[in-house]
Amino acid sequence: MKVVDDIMVKDLIILNQSDSIYQARMLMKEKNIRHLPVIDSDTGDYLGVVSQARLLNYTFKIIEKFGLASFEKREQRTSVNEIMSKDSPVVAPGTGLREVADMFLADKLSCLLVVDGSKLKGIVSSVDFVKLARQFLDD
After folding, report:
1. How many CB atoms lie within 10 A of CB 101?
2. Environment class of residue 21 by beta-carbon count within 10 Å: exposed (0-12), middle (13-18) or buried (19+)?
3. Do 120 and 39 meet the contact criterion of CB atoms below 8 Å apart?
4. Digit-coded pLDDT (tens) for 29-49
5. I need a labelling partner for 32 at 20 to 30 A (CA). Which of 10, 54, 86, 127 fits?
6. How many CA atoms lie within 13 A of 112 on its CB side?
C-alpha cells in the first residue's frame, strides 16, 4: 500500500513564525505555491500553515480597514503567526493514501502537512493527488 511519504513534497519552502505576511505573499508569488508551512525558528517544530486563501482574506481586511496606501507597510509589520492556521489537520509519513484521500474529500482540504512528532516532514496537496491519478491513467 502506498503511503503519503511516497508522494509528499519533501523539499519544503517554509516560514518562521516571525516572518511577515509580506514575505509570505512574495514567496507564494515567486514560487507559485498556495501553502507555506510555519515553523518555530528556535526548535524547528511545526506550528501551522499560511494558505493563499487565508492570506488573501487578511489582505482584503487590511485594505478595507486602512486603505491601499498603507497596505504594504501594515503587511510588512504583521507576522504570519497572526494569520496562520494552527489547527489544520496533519498526517504522519506512514499514513495510507486512501486515508489521506478520504480526509481531502471529507474536509474539502487543499493540503495536508506531514508531521512526525512535532517535526515537519512534507506537504501533500490536491495537486499531488491529481498527479498521482494521472500516473494511474497513463499506466
Report:
1. 15
2. buried
3. yes
4. 999 999 999 999 999 999 999
5. 86
6. 30
The yes-or-no verdict on residue 1 having pLDDT over 70 is no
Q: Cell 501594515 belongs to which residue?
A: 74
Query: Alpha-carbon distance 96 to 94, whole Å?
Result: 6
Written as one letter, the residue type at 5 is D
Q: Which of 96, 100, 88 is nearest to 47 (CA)?
A: 88
Identity (one letter) of the amino acid at 114? Answer: V
